[in-house]
Design a protein that fits this description.
With 146 residues, this protein is α+β, with helices and mostly antiparallel strands. The protein has six helices and five strands, in the order H-H-H-H-H-E-E-E-E-H-E.
Length: 146
Amino acid sequence: MKEKQFKHKQAWVKTFFHARGFKCTPQRLAVLSVLKNSPKHLSISEIHSRVREFLPKVGLATIYRTLETLEELGLVVKVHLEDGCHSYTVVSREHGHPMVCVRCNRVFEFRECPIDRMSKRLSRKTGFAIETHFLQFLGKCQDCKR
C-alpha cells in the first residue's frame, strides 16, 4: 500500500486521538495497523515482532504502554485465554463481543448483546451506574470443531 493511501485511511484515527487529548504516534498507528490486519488475536510478543518490521527500534515496554492506551481509548480489547494469558484484537465500531477459537486463535465478533437489557435492569434495581461490560466466548470455530 502506498504511503499516501495509508495516511488517508488513518486520518480518522488521528482525529480520534487528538479529540481525546492523545498524540497519534507512529507506534500507536503501527500497533493498530498490525492488529487490524490480523485475522486472529495476537499476543504482546507477536505484536512486538510485527511492529518491529515497520519500526525496528520499538521496545517491548512501548508496546505494553501503547496497548494500555489503545485499550483505554476503546480501540482494542484484551482477549482472555483459557490458560490465563491474554492477547489483543481491534474493537469493531459496533458493540459486540469476541468469540475466540481455542484451537486456531481466530476471533469472531458476536453482535447480539443480551447483557444490555440485563445491565439496565441491574442499574434500576441496585442503583449501580453500570458504564460498560465485558463478555467473551471461548470455543471451537466451525473449521476446528470437525
